[in-house]
Structures are given as structure tokens and as C-alpha cells.
Fold this protein.
Amino acid sequence: MSAFQTSSAGKESGFRQQLQALAACVLITLVTQPLREHVDLANIVMLFLLTVAIIAVWLGRKPAITASLISIALFDFFFVPPRFSFSVNDAQYLITFTVMLMVALIISHLTAGLRQNAIEAQQREQQMRALYALAQQLAGVLTVEQAALDARNFIRQLGMELHVLVPTRNEVLLTVGGESVELDVAEMMVVRSAFSNNAAMELRSESPATLILPLSGVTRPRGVILISAEREVLALQRPLLEAVASLMATALDRLHFVEVAQQHHMQMLTERLRSSILAALSHDIRTPLTALYGLADTLTLPRQQLPEPARETAAAIRDQALRLNNLVSNLLDMARLHAGQVQLRKEWQPVEEVIGASIKLLGTALQRHPVKVHLAAGLPLIEFDAVLLERVFCNLLENAAKYAPLDTDILLGAQVVEGELEVTVANAGAGFPPDKLLAVFEPFERGVAESPLTGVGMGLAICRAVIEAHGGGISASNPAAGGACVRFTLPLGEPPVIEQEAGESP
Amino acid sequence: MSLVLLVEDEREIRRFIRQALEGEGSEVREAGTMALGLEAVVSLKPQLVILDLGLPDGDGVDFVQRVRSWSQVPVLVLSARSTERDKIAVLDAGADDYLTKPFSVGELLARVRALLRRGRPGEALESPMSRFGRIEVDLARHVVTKDGQPVRLTAMEFKLLSVLLANAGRVLTHRQLLREVWGATHVEHTHYLRIYVAHLRQKLEDDPTQPAHFQTEIGIGYRFQF
């Protein structure tokens, strides 16, 4: 990590490097001195240039410049006649000096640049490695706290301070992993605004400055990080910090979705357990109910010759048994629909068939509420599960009868509207409570809270589950003309073609 | 006097069914398991079998198939299950009718009477003439009239009508009707059947949306009722 430290480490080391450059120049002068008689001066110049190049590679630009100047001075003093003097006999040597100086400077510039690049590349590589290590750590964390601690340690190694703030369930930003950051009201507002606008902001501009980076998740901001350090350091390390923020956001996203998946899984298990309990219960309840219903019904037969009050009691027992049975049926249906265990057995069929069957099935329950059926001419075949749709019609008709005054009609209509089959069931009752038009489709919700009428109000919830499983929609309304109306739609699809029989008039 | 075999494991359910049937003048024998039931069908030769599908020791489809291999005794199935699949399977295997638990004594007796009447040989459809509502059907001459006015039926419609009439009071599954009228290759084409039943209702019922004779057994099939 030391490579990250900006070289404020010292004037001292700079001074030492200058001395080293000086020493190197002196050394090459001493080494070449004996060669003076045997070697051409032009080659001596080469050796001096080599020295400058080596100094540039090892020590950098400034010592190399120093070395250029010193080596020219030494060359002049010890080699160029007259020796041991800075004066020059032959004006040609001025050209030598100038060229030597320029070449030395160019060499030192280029090699020092190379060295700088190498150092930077090394630094970048180290940063990348450190980031990769952090990414690996974050990919494995199991809690938000752990993720925050890992990121904090990483940033601390760079000589900066990091705080992670994440929103609670009610959107309050709190520090996680480590002591909480101290912010005044105004600062907190800046942090909040960075969070909600998903934008980077500066909290304190004077050193040590604090930078706020948002953690932008896939679906929403996951929090913010606060980094405190010297202003220049922050500016220098900004790309790295942004990379850390993005890693952190990914980690928080992952943790969030893991949590969602776990919750969903738990919910599914609970749901499955509940529905299997309900299924077993309702089967075991139905057997004694059959006996109870049948035995009570037997007592009401004329040939039993029971006194009238006893016969009425038997009839009441029978009716209550039937009610209990309907309740169990609804519970079982609801449980199966909720657990997703219902496989639709969809077939193409006319909707009037299931309407007729439902009305017949309800029988006496609709005695005081005649159903007026209005079907548009030429309705197409619709693809649906007849058994489930029968439950829908039975529930809707039963409900309509339950909440309507005696001897009023129930209106049932079906027509094609905008590419869907639209079915309406309306009665002449008091209508749904206006604030409950949506809630009536929730399980255990009834239009009238303390109504003396029976039923736990699962009927409409079952209707919704069935219709939605068919890709349709259902809604309740109170028509202006009075009464209550439930409307549902089913997709039309493409019905199969029926070949015309020979001799059949269309 | 007719002899009814009741195959049912619940004592209290047996009790009220026995009471109801004996009140009608039938003689009732009981079996608590399917194995005992099969033995009793062989030894007693009852005029009607009432079979509960929820018996712990066996499979209703298997029971009906074995009975059908040598006897045409009417079988009425009692089912507590809410899935239609089991009912269809046992009806396809040869059962005549079904009742879903819980059921009233009135429903039970109506079904039993209808099945016993059908079971009596020589009585069903002696005459080619059938009457229901305002309709008169002459199966021999292929003529259908409503209030004396002729009603035009296509060949397929007439075939379907005659199959339904021949099985009046019985539940016929979609599969059975399709095989009977259109042939074995068409047993999956339930929409054909539905369309033709709709045609018959339009032509022969007073209120096609609330049919009195061509009744729908939702998810299972159709039943013709005089």
C-alpha cells in the first residue's frame, strides 16, 4: 500500500538523490581520468551521457538534470584543454557542451517519464488487486455490517476514513459497521439529498474534506458512503472511491435480493403447510358432515311422523350442516388457489353452459331472487376451467342474492367488449360500501362489517383468484341506477374452428 | 322388492342411506370394504350398487371395471373428493351416476329410483316415441316436433339426441359422448360436443340458458333428464 502514498515523504530523500547524482558524476570522472590518454574525448562524452541516463532511470528527473549540469562542468574542467580550468581553447567545444547538455536533458526527460509511467502502472495494478480483493470479500459477506466493515478497512489502508450509511425500513439513514458518524442537521440534509438524488456531493470543502458518494442499486439507492481525507487525496483517489462505491452498491443489492428470496421461500413453505393442513382438515370434516346432513335430512321426511317442532329442528340442523360444508369448501378452494396447487383444466366452451349449471346448482338459494340472463347474440367459445368458473358464478350469484331484498331480480349479462368477454352480475341491494370496492376482494372481508348476514366473505376472494388465474380482471361497482354490480373479464383468445356439418344451415 | 348393496366404511353414513332406502321399500345389504363389496356383488346379485370412492382399501375404478367385466348392475358412486378427475375416471370405467358428499336424502332417492328403473329389463325405450316438455321425438322415423311443428335437426344433432335419450337419467362423460357420436378419434374435441349440445338446447329447450332437460354436469359431461 505504501506505493499509494504521495511523495510528500520528503525533501530529505530529494536532497539525498541529488547527492547520489553528484557522487555518480564524480565517480565517472575518476574512472575515465586514466583513459584520457587512450580514448577519444567524444567517447568520454558518451560515458558521461550514459551516466546521466542511468541516473534518470534510477533516481528520476531532478537528479538527472543536476547530473547533466555537473557532468558538463566536470568534463570541461578535467578533460577539455586547458585542463583544470573552465576556460575553453577551441570554440568547437561550446557545440559539444550544448549538444551534450541537450542530449542529457532529453535523455533524462524521457527515461524519467518512463520511470514515472512504470511507477504509476505499478500503483494502478496494486490498486486493482486491492479492489479485486475487496470485491471478493464483498461478494462473500452475509450481512450489511460485514460489508461496511470490509469497505472501511480497505479505505483505512489508503489513509482515509469511511462511513457507510444505509436507510432503515422507514428511510432513516443510519451508520452501519463501526461507530456512527457525527453530523449536524445541515450536514444530514446534504447526506439525505445525495441519497435521494443519487448524486455525489461534497460535505466539507476545507481539509480534511468529506465526500459523499451514493450507492446506486439496480432498483433504488441502497445508501451512501462518506469518505474523509485531505482534499487533494480525495480528488486524486476519486476513481478508486467510485469503484468502491459501486462494489458496495452491488454487495448491498445482492444482500437485499437474497433477503427477499429467503422471505419468499419462507412464505411459500408456510403457505404450503397451511394448505395441506386445510386440505386434510376439510376432508376429515366432510365425512362427519355428510352423516350429519343425511341423518338430519332423514328426520325431516314426512314418513318419520315427527311432531312439527322436532321436524323444524331437524331441518335447522340440516341447513347448518350444509352451511358448514360450504364454509369448508370455500376454505379448501382458497387454500388450494393460494398455494398455487390448482392446475387449470382449460377447455373451449360456451359461457352460457356454466351459467345454466351454476343457477341449477344453487337451486333453492335463488328461489326468491330470479336470475335474468342477458347474453349478447353470437358469443364466441371461451377457454376456461369450467369447474372453477362455476365456483365464480355460484359465489357471485349467492352474494347477489344474500345482499338483495327478497323477490328482486338478479341481472346476469355477458358481452364482448374491446377484445374481452365481459360478464356482469348485478342486484338491487344497497350496494357495496363505497370505500370497500377494492377490499371486498380480500379474503375475510365483507361489505358490511357487522352485518347479520352469514358468510366469512371468502367468496369474492375466490372469484378474484380464479379470474386472475385465467388472465382476466374483476372489479366491483355501485351503478348510478342503484344496487351492486360485479364485473369480470376473460380473454377471448382464438377459439378452434368448428367444421360445418354437411347440410347444416348456417 | 329391489336389493341394494351399499359399499361404505362410515357407519353413520350407512345408517341414513339404509333408512332412506328401506323407507322406499328396498332391501339393503352393507359392505365395509371394497373386497367384501366385490364378494357381495357376486353372491347377492343386487339390483343396484352404491359405492363410496373414499374407501381405505381400494380404488373405485378397479372395482367398477371388475364388476363390469361380468355384470351390468347399475353403480351409483359417492364421492367426497372435490377433484373431477376421479369422478370422470370411475364414470368412464362404467359407473352410471355419482353424488357428491354431502347430499340430501331427496337427491339420493331420486338417483336410486332412476337407476333402478333403468336396470329393469325390457322397460327402457320399448317405444320409439319419446316425449319431454313440448317436444316429441320419433327415433324410428327421425322426426322431432315441437308443439306439433317439425324441428329441423342435422344428422349429428339427431345422433347426439338419440344417444342422450337412450341413456336418460345417466351421466355421460364428454369422452363417452364423443366416442359414441363422433367416434374414437374425436374424444379430445370437447368443443364439438359443447357446440352441438348448445344447438340442441337452442332448438329444443324453452330457456336454453337454464335447460330443463339437457343438463350440464360441470367438468364431467351431460345428463338427459325427462
Remarks:
- Chain A has four domains: 8-135, 141-256, 275-339, 347-491.
- The longest strand of chain A covers residues 221-229.
